[in-house]
Amino acid sequence: MALIVRWYDFICFGIVAAAFVGSLWMLWRKEASSRCDDNTVYESLLMARPDTDGFVRSTPLAHVGSSQLWTSCWKGVHPGWLLLTRFVSCVAMAGFLSWDILDWDASIFLYYTEWTFTLVMVYFALGTVVSAYGCWVYSKETPENGIRDAEEGSMVASVTYGEKEVRGKIKLQSHYTEEVIQQRAGFYGYLLQIVYQTCGGAVVITDIVFWCIIVPFLSDAHVGLNTLMGCMHTFNAFFLLVDTSLNSMPFPWFRIAYFVQWSCLYVVFQWIIHACGVSWWPYPFLVLDSPWAPLWYFVLAVVHIPCYGIYALIVKAKNSIFPRWFPQAFVRSY
């Protein structure tokens, strides 16, 4: 057993445990609760809030409707452009990851960088599937269908009673259809949002640690600046920012909990493999056999807040600045 536990290591264990439990509590309060007051923002993706008559008439703030998963925040932009962006990003990142594995073998997944890079790639893969489905839905909404519906509507309009009856049926059908869509979007939107918002914070902390700490101070034979490492710590953020500039998904603050859980999972993974015999630590600030370990772990826990906040501010800036610069072309995400 390579992991030797000292008294100050229990402080490190407590910091990670507190961060994980705190994130679970935040999700329980914000995500899993189906109740909301009229004067608060409803942000849960698990279900849509019905109106007083039981119908879901609108998408609450930060709730992802089905169309928000694959439509652009720019008016007139075909969903195919978002599909193309996500597909190209996924393929490019898969190429870089394959290159990394060929150079260093599967042991490269001991690094948080590869965890984050793979997660971003998974987001683009999932987004590609969702966008492909969205393009299929978009293709069904042809002008011919609209003309046919208008002609049928004009024929029914000749009879007053029939018109009222048809309108009532259409209204009920519309409510029912929207309810079904909201339920489906709740699941897919929930899954896509988890990965998207985890990627936002993870990419920021990965690139900041690499460019500001590892490259200047901790470079060695395993971790250093070369073409591959430079690309992986640049394109992960670049591709995600391009997607953010096009997509219509919100970025609420409380989902920092998923980002925290992702990092906790990585730290626990490191503890487990070291308990099983691995003696080498990929990052010096994760080493447990140092009296300074509790301080490092505390700093790492705290730094998750500004890292997630940086990406949240980018999304907020997009929704604040672009509507003023392009009032006729941009649609706010929330």
Automatic annotation (TrEMBL):
Q: Which domain of life is it from?
A: Eukaryota
Concerning PANTHER family, the annotation shows: OS02G0130600 PROTEIN-RELATED, PROTEIN ROLLING PROTEIN
Report TM segments: 6-28, 81-99, 119-138, 194-217, 223-242, 295-314
> Is Transmembrane found in the keyword set?
yes
Report if keyword Phosphoprotein is assigned: no
User: What GO CC annotations are associated with the protein?
Assistant: membrane
| Keyword entries, A-Z | Membrane, Transmembrane, Transmembrane helix
Q: What is this protein called?
A: Uncharacterized protein
